[in-house]
Structure formats: C-alpha cells, structure tokens
Design goal:
The structure is a homotetramer.
Chain A (H helix, E strand, L loop, with lengths): L1 E2 L2 E2 L4 E7 L6 H14 L3 E3 L17 H13 L4 E4 L3 H7 L5 E4 L7 H8 L5 E4 L6 H14 L4 E5 L15 H10 L4 E3 L1 H5 L2 H14 L3 E5 L17 H17 L3 E2 L9 H4 L2
C-alpha cells in the first residue's frame, strides 16, 4: 500500500515519528523538522488523546489536526493521527493521511465498520489485551468493509511485568507476517515506556520482520504533556536512523527512500 | 440510585437477567416471562452485539431495542442494553432504562463523555484488561460529565487461565465497595463462561459485597446465537433465585422486593 | 481425609490460622492461643520461608518447626508448615501434621515425588502462574506416588492487576470441586495481600465451595517480619470466626467442631 | 565468564544447541555432530525433565548425563543440563559444565543456595511468571552464596496470548543488559513453541543485546519425546548459523570462534 510517496510493506523500511501529543504549533514544527532531517517518512501526532483520567490533558483536537497537517506538508511528510470515534471521522478524513485506531479502540466495531468504508489507509494498533487472532479479526472488519489499506501495529501487551510499560510481543510480528499479507509496524515507545529501550527494540523489530516503526519524539521530553518518559530526543532519533541501515542490510532490506516532495495524497482523496 | 421502582446499591440485592442477545420477539418474551416469574428485577438483552469476528451474528439492532422494551414493559421489568457508539445513543436513549457500556468500550472516552451528559443511568462494565484504578477513572468520566447515576459491573479479567472464559475478580468488588460509594454488580456469566459455575459465583459475589447480578438466561442455551455455554436455563435461574435469600440473610441483606408495575422511568426521562 | 481429630473435606468447614512466619516462641504462642480461643482447627506458621530476596528474613528453620509443634500441642491444634526441599523433609516429617508445598514449588517435581511416598497429608498450593489443569496434574504426582492425603489450596494467581497482591480465583475452587474429589482450601491472605479484604473473601470462598481457609494472623501486624499488611489481628480473626457460621449455614454447611484434645496424629505416624 | 574454551558475555555471541531431552545415545550423538558441524559452542540436553504430567516422559536421568557428556566430549562441546533438586547435584556436578536452573525452579531457593556454593557456572532461566526484579534477586541468591559464574536466560513469560507457547520478552533482555553485568542468553524455542518463529526471534534476540542463544535441535522433531513442535531440524539450525553473522556484524559483534578441542573444564573442577 502507498501513502503519497511512501510504500508501506515493500522492501523499504518505513519510519513514522513525532510527538505523543500535538501540544502547540511550535513544538510540532520543531519535532517535524528534526525527524524529517533525520530521515523519517511520516509524521505522527496525537490530536484527540485517549487518557485514562478525565483530568489529564486531552489533546488539542481539531486544532491539532490542522497543526499536524501544516507541519507535515512543510516537510513533505504524510501524517498519521488517531481517530477515537465515528463522530470525529468527518473532521479528520481530509486532513490526515493515515487514520490510526488506537489500542483501546481495536474492538470498537462501529468505528471499524465506518473506517471500512472510507478511502483512507488505516493503522490498526493491537489492543493491549488482544490475542493475535482477535487483532486479525479486527482487521477483517476493515477488509470486509471494503478498505484494503490496512497497516497493523504491535505496541506491547499487558502482562504481570511492571518493569516496562507493556510487554513488546515481537513473536507476534513474525507470526502475523507469516500468516497474512498485511504490513506490520512496531511501536517501541508505548511497548516499553522507557526511552533507553526504544533503540534496541527498534532494531530487534526490524530483524523480526516488521515493515517499519512508529516512534515518539519530543524536543524536550521532560516537559512533555504526555508520556515524556518514552520519547526519544531528536538526537536519539537521529542515532536510531543511523543504526537502522546496517541492521536492515543484514536481512536484505533497507530504509525506504526519503520523501522529497509534499504528499499529494490528500489532494486527490475522497 | 433508582431505576423506576428498583433501587440499586441499597439493602436490596438486585438481579438483572435476560438473553445474551435478543434473537427474536418470541425468544425474548419467553425469557422475560421466565425471569420475571422467578423474581428478576430488570431485563437485559443485547441489541448491538460487539463480536470478535465480523462474520458472527451482530445483533438485531434497533429492532432488538424495541423487542426488549416491549417484553420489559409487559413484565414490569426496566431494561438494560449495551450502547456501542455515540451515534447509537439517540436511538436508544428513549427505549432503554439503563445504558450499558461493555468491557471493550470501558475506555471509549468519547462514548463516556456523551453518556456523562444524559439523564439515564449507566452500567459501566470493567474492561477485561483494566485495573481497578482505570475502571474507577472511567467512571470518573461519567461523574465528571454530570451523570451521577453510575453502576459498576465486574465481569472477569483476562489472565493466563483458560479453564474459564475470564477470571472473576471478586476481591475487586470488595475493594471498590470500600473505596467508592458506587453500586457494583457482578456478571458471573461472562466471567466464567461456564453455566455450571454461574450459581456458585453468584452466591460468592453476593457475600463479597456485590449489590446485584447480571446473569444470562436462555430458553434453549444449546441453540443460542451467542454464548450459549454460559447461559442458565430458566430452571437453573429459578434455582439461583431460591438460593440467594438465605445467603443474603447471612450477611444482613435481602433480595430487592419484586417489582409489580410497569416501569415509569422512561415516560419521564429527559 | 483426617488430621488427628480434624476431618478436611467433609461437611465441617476447617480453618487453619497462624503467623506468616514463626518469629519467636512468644509470638507464636500468642497467636496460637488467640486462634485456638477463636475456634481455629489447625495452626500454620512458616519455618523455612521462600523469600524473593536473599537479604530478607528467611525463617528460623528447624527451631521454628519445634516452636510451632509445641504451641500446636499446647492448644490442641495440629500444625501445618511448608517444606521447600526434599532435603528438609527428614527433619520435618515427625514434627508437622500437614506438609505444605508452596506456590513457588507446585512444580518442584522431585519434592512432589518425595511427598508421594510419605504417610503424611500434603497441602498443595496452586502456583501463582499455574492453570487449574497444571495444578491437578501436580496433585497427580502425589496421588500417583501413593499419597492420597492431598488438600489443594487456591491462593491467588498473578495477573496485570496491582491493586491486590494476586487475583483470587474463586471460580477455580468451584471448578475443582466439580471435577475432583479433593478437598480445597482458600488462602485469602496471600491472594489479596490486604487485611481489609480477607474477611469478605473468606466468606465468598466458603460460599464458592471451599472446604476451609488458610489465614494469616499476627499479634502486631505492623511489626511482622513478613507480610504484615495481609495479616489479621486476633480481634479481626475472631470477627471472621463469628461471621462464618451463618454464611455456612446458608449453604448447608457448618464450622468443623472445635478440637479439644492434643493431636495424636504425630505419635502414630511413620 | 568462561566455560572451557568458551567465553560467555564477551564480544563473541555464543550458541548452545541440542535436544530438549536426551532420548538415546544415538539421537544425542546425531544432534551433537550436527550442531558442532554447524558451529554451535555448547551442547544442551535434558536429563531430568520437569514434566507437567507424571505420566509424561521424565528423562533418562543419570544415564542421560553420561550420554550427553560423551557426545559433548567427542565434539569438543561443553555441556549444559538442568538440575531439578539439591539431591541431584552431587551426581551431576562432575559431568556437566553448566548447571541449568529451569523456569519452574527459579525460586527454588534451597537449590539456589546450594548452587551458590559450587564452583560451576549456573544458567538461570527466568521463571515464566517472574518479574525482571525477581529474576535478578534469584541471581542474587547465587552471587550472595559466592558463585559469580551466573548466566541469565530469558525464555518467555506466561501471558493471555495463546498463539505462541509463551511471550518472548526481549525488552527484558535489553533492560537487564543495561542494569547488570551478567551475560544473558535467549531461548527462542520455549519462548515461542513454534519452529517457524525460532530463527526470526533468534536474530531479534541478537540485536536486542543478548549474548547468545539456547536452541532446541532434533534430528526428527515429529518423533521427539518432548516439545518436537519447537525443535529446529539440523538443516534449519545450520540456516540459523549462517544468518547470524551478518546481523551480529551490523551491531559490532560476531559469533564466538568455534571451539576445536575437548573442554578441559571438568577435569579441573571442584
């Protein structure tokens, strides 16, 4: 499948990077510039944030969607943002290149049904307590609805272990690659919750067969409004982008070519 | 809190019973008559069913809501049905006495926000991978939105154990009763997935401090379109209703008085 | 099966109580006197303690076995203590009425093989990550070895939930009672890790079909060398013993009669 | 640390391979010859097998230890075998180069205490329900006892996922490498339970920071007496050994040099 100039699931390994949450135009632009310079292929950022507590920062909503789209456009990066509800879909569909379904919504079947009917790629995160079988059946809701542009994303499952935020299940990535034709990304940021584990787990994901990464980057993680403990700094992200090519080469893959022009996808979409 | 003639969270122990899914008017009426005769206080039934596979029976939708309401009215039982999405809310609000948020939607925050604004009680099931803290924070979305009519429902959590469908966490019931003022029901049907465990777990739930039960009953479980293995027959449900009073008496509680008249609640609601 | 004057698995509900660890003769005697006065049937106490850290209190070992035996004898209570290793067996067998296999050793097969050959009842705790099937197969090692005096004990399983120490799986108790003839006790102290949940979970265990309890009691829980947070005070234990009879009566059972004389079992054993 | 000519935890990546269980001299010799030819550094094989059911094959015991030692000696491979109980230690210590503590015994503290006193390296597998903290504290029992020759081994943890036998927790490997100086191996065979996942997870483990692998190989997996579904054939093992070097090179490591001579370690040991 392709998103503007980016093919996901081909030989080229794809890196989606950006802040957990869009906090401001300045913060987003700073991160977008940094990840574009380091070679990221798509820009991610949370607009509507699903937060455990109603008193936590809930995201900037539609304003964030606009900010994200502008920074993505400026740096030639198609954008990925999470949609939480069917009612948000109309306002997001024309401004987002890939619609993300988060872990908590993997079995939000009305949302999956609605996304099955749009002509926009969907990134389907594995629920943190979902089996591989349930994950693939959730994807089936999208495929059965007529949307074949589905990317899976492993982001760790909930277990008894508390040393990491979740338990990254890389065997599921290898398993899904053997059993389906769908591309699979890995989100090492949410999976581990610890910045210092993001690079080793990114490399391990590449070798396990992932088609790309979804990585959180923040200009000043300690001041982030959301999940700062797991965000890479721009310098660490750049380090990751330097370490990926030799590892990919060892298994016969390579980084996807850098995208030079602004994404045209949204101009032509439904 | 009260739903028509029924008080939930008082001294009286409340039993919600009915089929997993509304399959037809006849099946629903048969179950409603049986559970009313045995002393149930409310009627439950699935209209929109959240199913793991898109190819499984998805519920009769609005037709089911109407069927459920008619059978409830005929037998003087307020009705409980699950709402899956904010978009379904408008069509359900006038026909359902308690809106249920299912385990998969416990962290569907837009839905919780919407339910925080209605004047209708909400039954909030614990997510099957939610901690007690997350469950109470999900309830906080409802309370913070202005809806104080919240009933919690423990329905088992997902663990490594496969002998039962889920692992019923009765300690969480005792814990929540000590830490909040909210009423708590227990759903032994989904928690165990096995008919033969429903009665002992119902009695244990009562003694652990639950304010009531949510129990699945089907006239012919082996022919049920959904979860037949965990449904009580009418005869077993009647057996349960005979066993509850002495156990409740032992801890100073009793079954809620039977409701004699049709529920008036929907006539006066928002 | 019988242990001195106590029958486990009959109509009478049996309560085993005592400190997590034998810390001194005085502390043990104080607890033994209190639980005997309140109506306990057996005395438990840790001699060799399996501790996660090598730097934590490891138990008084053989001295503790002797202390426990003396206090038990003084109050007419047969004693239960955990054996960690085949090498400890010889020194414990003549001083302990029931040999406990702890959760960490449920699949210590050489130990199970050795215990299959002794003429002494064995209390087999469920491993904190063991399925019901694995638990019953562990019991099968004892039965297959020739020891039919096996009592099972559910003590909570490890899950993602952190509000309680473990997750008490009462459905497993009902399931095991339906599938085997073995008596089953419940340990609400380790299962919950919280004193305030011990009484409600004890009552729930009784109603779920358990044949008895294993409860930790300490004269001064805040000063306990081990697991004080989950220990009942003597006053709370007495409260529990007053609350059990009506709940048991509601399901057609009763507390086992109090044991008046010193246990004769050890005098006649192998 | 070194075992004969093999250094574990240095730059060289170490591969331990062999059958789940020693079934016969012929089967062991066939596997030993194959893995030696393919470049393995140590030979593993189960002598005393911890089996869930007492009716499953329990291993050949001391005979297996002798068989394993002879095949290892013939091919210049130091041998690794599991010890289940302190009582087995005396008969194994002179015939085994690395004593393995299996997942079920990670918290068998008397065994750890005994192994803390021997002059023989210990391979400590993570318990399938052990946190990283508990695993490191179990290692502390060995270190505190005076044995500094400790190798850790991640072999998957028990979670709700049933598509794989366990869930391989590679983040724990990266975490432990950052927090301790101990070498860490990964056992992709038990972790996944599926032959087709062993190679991708082996490569991922190498990139995640593991110091080596523990891999099951069987000449005829479909006829294996134990865990055949997860065993590599000799051909697949050879494939793995060809794929490792480029991946290791990408992260600045390499396979440990092949061991040419018979291990001298046992001749000089304690």
């Amino acid at each position: 499948m392709t998103v503007g100039p980016v093919e996901i699931g081909g030989v080229g390994f794809v890196v989606v990077a950006g802040p957990c949450a869009v906090e401001s135009a300045g913060q987003t632009e700073e991160v977008a510039a940094a990840v574009a310079a380091a070679g990221a292929h798509l820009l991610r950022g949370g607009a509507f944030k699903p937060r455990t507590s109603p008193y936590a920062f809930q995201g900037l909503g539609e304003e964030a969607v606009a900010i994200l789209g502008r920074s993505g456009g400026r740096h030639g990066l198609p954008v990925v943002a999470e949609v939480l509800d069917t009612a948000q879909l109309a306002s997001m569909i024309d401004h987002v290149d890939i619609l993300q379904v988060g872990a908590r919504n993997m079995q939000n079947f009305p949302l999956l049904r609605a996304l099955g009917k749009v002509r926009r790629p969907v990134l389907l995160k594995r629920g943190f307590a979902a089996t591989v079988e349930e994950w693939l059946l959730a994807a089936e809701y999208l495929l059965d609805g007529g949307n074949s542009q589905v990317v899976l994303c492993e982001r760790g499952i909930r277990t008894f272990e508390t040393a990491t935020r979740n338990t990254l299940d890389l065997a599921s990535v290898a398993l899904v690659k053997q059993r389906t034709h769908l591309p699979v990304l890995v989100d090492p940021s949410h999976a581990t919750g610890l910045r210092e584990l993001v690079i080793p787990m990114s490399l391990a994901a590449a070798v396990a067969g992932a088609d790309g990464l979804l990585v959180e980057v923040h200009g000043a993680p300690e001041a982030a409004l959301c999940d700062g403990r797991q965000a890479l700094t721009p310098a660490l992200f750049s380090d990751l982008m330097h370490r990926l090519p030799p590892v990919l080469a060892a298994i016969g893959r390579s980084l996807h070519p850098r995208t030079a022009a602004a994404p045209a996808v949204r101009a032509v979409s439904p």
